[in-house]
Design goal:
Elements lengths: L4 E9 L2 E10 L7 E5 L10 H7 L4 E5 L18 H15 L8 E6 L1 H11 L5 E7 L7 H12 L7 H11 L8 H11 E3 L5 E3 L6 H5 L3 H17 L4 E6 L7 H8 L6 E5 L11 H12 L2
Parallel strand pairs: 3-4, 3-5, 5-6, 6-9, 9-10
Antiparallel strand pairs: 1-2, 2-4, 7-8
Helix pairs in contact: 2-3, 3-8, 5-6
Length: about 290
Amino acid sequence: MGEPRLKSVQCSSPAGLHRMAYKEWGDPANPRVLVCVHGVTRVAGDFDALAASLSDQYRVVCPDVVGRGRSSRLRDPGHYIVPQYVADMVTLIARVTANNEDEAVHWVGTSMGGLIGMVLASFENSPIRRLVLNDIGPVLDQAALARIGEYIGQDVRFASFEEGARFVKDVSSSFGPHSDEEWNKLARDVLVQEPGGDWVRHYDLGLAKPFAAITLERAEQDQAALWAAFDAIRCPTLLIRGEESDLLSRATAEEMTRRGPKPQLAEFPGVGHAPTLMHAHQIAVVRNFLLNE
């Protein structure tokens, strides 16, 4: 339904105010709202295909989580943590549902976006009515987290877009098979050219700071808190897993189906962390779940 509208909303952190940019698809008067939130170094553009497909049924809202893409960078990178992201999403939902009788939304979250949704859905009186968790759960593989943290903090620069695109394809190989055009799109969404001419990844390298602070004790505490949040979720939930994922194990996914909201489980073969939800068969799984009320 046409091109997305680019908007932003003002949010706050303990260090001050910041703006969170978002794309909005579909009829701006549609009271049915779907919020789609990306992974740790990705952006709103990841959901372009899904949003276009679902914009006949929803007003689809896809934010650039603070520190990424068109959104502001935080003054204190120590606040690049899930509680801050949850607070920002509460502000966003209040904005996009301001004319609705309630603040109800449906939610699709990939990786980090799923963690944000999991925590928000666990709250009493949560606005989330249906939840899709894309390749994420309460147990996070420590080796995978270390790999992600190291990758995030590298100040990698590229002389050309083509060089940057090859890098993005290499580090994102776990996304599974994609066409050259799709890889180009995945790269273009997360690369930006600096005034000096270099191409860089479109996020604040300060995102790595909270990863560096993670200790084994802290990781165990976070895992216990995430399981408690998951067990508190009451809305219908779909859990998506890449069959080759190193972040969400098969054992964790199966345990999730027996606890909390007891989600439906859908696995995609030939994919690791995380399914991009760009392809028709993946979109169909999400669409069928969200609209099967």
